[in-house]
Structure formats: structure tokens, C-alpha cells
């Protein structure tokens, strides 16, 4: 039976439990199945995406299809991805009348999907980080995503804060991120242990600073943030030593790098770009790139 918001209204919790009982399904914690049961939140997410009939929207973790159906009303095509075969069966039965909907069974991180230009999704929190990096390698205009509050705050964390991380730097280099809305945990069933935030992710047309080699930049940043409370000098020495550079040479290189006396957590993404570019220049020929 198709979802009828004018009848269900704010009773998505009852509708969710009715469907799950009818199909004799219990949510799987392993798959992060916490169903959003607030219709107003779903509508706000769709509104933030500013959809038109020209848009093809990717939804990751379609679940029972409540968001899916709203999306299908607002855009030209919906690509709804769901990994749980039990839920895929429900989606196909409930939404069989939606001609602009493609239901794709599988793990989004391991499958090819048709082109899309927008993303609207409440993905399982267990795949937040890999999904984000997967998306940043794709071409799209805008994504409206719901993430665990702590994870979302790391995306926009200020320099030298506890939350400032490799994730902050990498995402800043590739996209603009804006926090749009707060969603308390009681808007889900079963309720997760954390609150959530809705964010907007907009890929940059050009990076905010230039790096000589992106792969080298991301590899160095990944390593440095495993010891972000140390001084940059010590982090670079450890990085170089781990790649076979003798200690005297590693010390010499590290002490010639800008900001080497500052702590890693104190460096802006732009600072780190300068650091890695200089490191690349000084180690060219060593086989580190």
C-alpha cells in the first residue's frame, strides 16, 4: 500500500511499526536501521535540496521508502539504494506505481550507480565516513545528508579544536559544508544513542588552495592527524622514518619545513597544503610520492 502522508501525518511511527509487523521484520542494529519517523523532518530535507523535475536524486539507505516517495513527487528520477533484501522487497511492493523510481539492491560502496546530480539521504551512521569519501569522488551539485551530530560537527570543526581532524581538512579541500538543522534522537525508531544534524555538501569547482600531488597530500594529512597533538617536526620525522628515510636526513628535512615548531592541530588546511608541497619538493627523488 503506498504511503499517504495526508492520512499518516505525524504518525510515521505507527506506520513504520505496522509495515514491519506485516512483513515480520525487526530492525537490524548491524545495518544501522533506525527509521526516521518525523514527516516534517523528511519534508525539510527535501526542501533544503531545492529539487526540480530536471534532477536525478540518489538516496542511500531507502529503508521503508517514506523519504523515497516524497523525493519521487518532487524530482525527475530517484535512485533508491538499499542493502537489506528484506527492505528491498517492501520498497518494490509499496512503490511499484512510481515510474520515476529505480530501486537498486546492494552496498553503495561496492556498486556502480547511474549518474545523479543531487543526493538526499539518511544513510546508516556506520557508513558515514566511507560514504562521504565515496561521494566526494563523484560529480554532483548538492547533497543533503543526515549524520550523527558528532560526525557532522567534525566536518566543520575549527582549527585547534578537539573535533578538528583529517576528515575536516579533506572535506574542506573538496567541498563546502553547511549545517542546516538539528534532529533529536527521539525522531527515530528505534531511537539511536545520539542526536543528528542535517548538512549540505556542495562540491567545490576548484580547491581552495593548490597542492602539488593530491594523493601525497591526503596520505601525509592522514598520517599527521594520527598524532595531531605533537609538533609538526616530530610528526614529519615519524612520517619520513616510516618510509625508510634515515633519522639524520628526516630531522634535516622536517626542520626545513614551514611551521615545524607548531602543533599539527594548530595548522589550517592551507598551512598543511604549504607543508606538504614543501615536503614533496624536498623529498622529490626519494620515491615517497
Description:
- The protein has 289 residues and is α/β, with parallel strands linked by helices.
- It folds into two domains: 199 residues, 3-Layer(aba) Sandwich (Rossmann fold), CATH 3.40.50; 70 residues, rRNA adenine dimethylase, C-terminal domain (Helicase, Ruva Protein, domain 3, Orthogonal Bundle).
- 39% of the residues lie in helices and 17% in strands.
- Strand 5, helix 6 and strand 6 form a beta-alpha-beta unit.
- Helix 3 runs parallel beside helix 4, helix 9 crosses helix 12 and helix 10 runs antiparallel to helix 11.
- It is elongated, with a radius of gyration of 22 Å.
- About 2% of the residues have low confidence.
- Describe the oligomeric state of these chains in a short phrase: single chain
Strand and helix order: HHEHEHEHEEHEHHEEEHHHH
Low-confidence stretches: 5-10
Alpha carbon gyration radius: 22 Å
Report the strand count. Answer: 9
Proportion of β residues? 15-25%
Q: Roughly what percent helix?
A: 25-40%
Amino acid at each position: 500500500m503506498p504511503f499517504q502522508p495526508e492520512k499518516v501525518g505525524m504518525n510515521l511511527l505507527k506506520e513504520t511499526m505496522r509495515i514491519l509487523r506485516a512483513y515480520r521484520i525487526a530492525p537490524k542494529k548491524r545495518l544501522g536501521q533506525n527509521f526516521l519517523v518525523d514527516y516534517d523532518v523528511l519534508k525539510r530535507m527535501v526542501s533544503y535540496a531545492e529539487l526540480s523535475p530536471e534532477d536525478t536524486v540518489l538516496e542511500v539507505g531507502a529503508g521503508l521508502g517514506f523519504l523515497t516517495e516524497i523525493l519521487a513527487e518532487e524530482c525527475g528520477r530517484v535512485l533508491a539504494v538499499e542493502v537489506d533484501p528484506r527492505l528491498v522487497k517492501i520498497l518494490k511492493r509499496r512503490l511499484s506505481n512510481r515510474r520515476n523510481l529505480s530501486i537498486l539492491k546492494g552496498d553503495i560502496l561496492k556498486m556502480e550507480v547511474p549518474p545523479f546530480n543531487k543526493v538526499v539521504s539518511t544513510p546508516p551512521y556506520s557508513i558515514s565516513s566511507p560514504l562521504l569519501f565515496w561521494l566526494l569522488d563523484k560529480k554532483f551539485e548538492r547533497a543533503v545528508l543526515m549524520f550523527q551530530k558528532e560526525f557532522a560537527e567534525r566536518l566543520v570543526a575549527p582549527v585547534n579544536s578537539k573535533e578538528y581532524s583529517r576528515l575536516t581538512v579533506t572535506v574542506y579541500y573538496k567541498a563546502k559544508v553547511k549545517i542546516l538543522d538539528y534532529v533529536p534522537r527521539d525522531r527515530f525508531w528505534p531511537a539511536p544513542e545520539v542526536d543528528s544534524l542535517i548538512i549540505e555538501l556542495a562540491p567545490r569547482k576548484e580547491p581552495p588552495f593548490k597542492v602539488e600531488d593530491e594523493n601525497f597530500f591526503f596520505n601525509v594529512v592522514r598520517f599527521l592527524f594520527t598524532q595531531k597533538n605533537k609538533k609538526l617536526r616530530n610528526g614529519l620525522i615519524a612520517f619520513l622514518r616510516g618510509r625508510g628515510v634515515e633519522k639524520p636526513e628526516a630531522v634535516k628535512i622536517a626542520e626545513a619545513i614551514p611551521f615545524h615548531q607548531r602543533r599539527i592541530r594548530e595548522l589550517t588546511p592551507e598551512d598543511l597544503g604549504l607543508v606538504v608541497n614543501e615536503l614533496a619538493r624536498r623529498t622529490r627523488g626519494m620515491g615517497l610520492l
